[in-house]
Amino acid sequence: MRLGRRMVAAAAAVAALAAGGCGGDGEPGASPGADAGYRVGLLLPESRTTRYDTFDRPYIEARIGEVCANCEVLYRNADSDAAQQATQAAELLAQDIRVLILDAVDATAAASVVTDAEARGVPVVAYDRLATGPVDYYVSFDNEKVGQVQAQSLLDALGGERTRPIVMINGAPADPNAAGFKRGAHSVLDGKVTIGREFDATDWSAEAARTGMAAAITALGAERIGGVYAANDGTAGGAIEALKAAGVTDLPPVTGQDAEIAAIQRILAGEQHSTIYKAIKPQATVAADMAVAAATGTAYAGQATTVTDNGTAKVTSVLLPPVSVTRANVKDTVVADGFYTAPQLCTGSYAAACHEAGIF
Is 245 in the same domain as 347? Predict the structure, then answer.
């Protein structure tokens, strides 16, 4: 992080406050410390994936409230539209936010957002996806490791039966995380299985996954597909729908990611083999702490950091470890952590599966 530049900006903010009173919600003459009120911008990328509004946003808002009681979080969701996200960023910058937490729809397109923020002296915390440009902090998971864990889960499910081809459904090309997942998965799968068909799911769309999977079924034959590497739970759901529509009753193992409640229920019911649980609360906590540090001109001093090169800057980063969830460890992961409660998961037809998995 270019802390010197940010501390200069913070000093300038202090001077401005002392000279003319508080520009935000704090008292006149207040320093931009954690106890002074200021605005934090939060831009999340889409609503197709349920995690963002269900978990990420409330966790970030709660943590900001804990460490800066007088701070206000201004939130926008871009609904997978990079141009809309740029407009939202401009709106937040015009409202005198002191720091921006940005989960970019398109990492490259987001460079203009980051540059605009820098020009205003507003530090940027890249959240979950590493944006291009002079980013100050980055928190996410080790993306190549995620792909490796997904792929190994698929190989474990296949066991010694690796003669049939698999289908690879990768994530959105505009999401830099998707490239990391793909690299990690290929590093494990290549040479171990035959990849019969591979495609990217635009915008992480379940419909794109369903359409691509239907084409793969036509090309390879429904009963010949040995497994499906799906980069997240939405694409996993689309693939499973296509398999069912093709009359497949003995579903091959299908991977996923994000531990969405529908995916956990599919895992319990035996329709999806695995998902990746990325504990969102620790990630959100780190992002909030980074944001407060950046806003107040101090260095982040939480979890151990590394450095990630985004092509523009070497960004101080925290990369958290992913966890594979199968039917065998649902109880010990997402339930034990309180990510979901047993009553949330074990509704209706899933009650019996929950009982078999030891959740009830």
Answer: yes
The enclosing domain of 77 has a CATH number of 3.40.50.2300
Residues 16 and 94 grouped into a single domain? yes
Confidence (pTM): 0.80
Same-domain status, 208 and 337: yes
Q: Cα(141)–Cα(355) distance, rounded to whole angstroms? A: 32
Q: What letters, b where the CB count within 10 A reaches 16 and e where it falls short, cover 24-63?
A: bebeeebebbbebbbbbbbbbbbeebebbeebbbebbbeb
Task: Check whether 30 has a pLDDT greater than 70.
Answer: no
Reduce the DSSP state of residue 273 to 3 states and report it: coil
8 A C-beta contact, residue 128 and residue 177: yes
Question: Angle formed by the axes of helices 111-119 and 82-94, to 10°?
Answer: 10
Alpha helices in 48-142 (DSSP H): 51, 57-67, 82-94, 111-119
The answer to whether residues 260 and 234 touch, using CB atoms and an 8 Å cutoff, is yes
**What SS3 state is found at 10?**
helix
Cα 255 to its chain centre, rounded Å, is 16
Residue 248 is part of which domain span? 143-278+323-356
- Examine the domain organization and report whether 235 and 350 are in the same domain: yes
Confidence of residue 35 (pLDDT cuts 50, 70, 90): low
pLDDT on residue 50: 83
CB atoms within 10 A of CB 69: 10
Same domain for 337 and 302, yes or no, is: no
Report how many domains make up the chain: 2
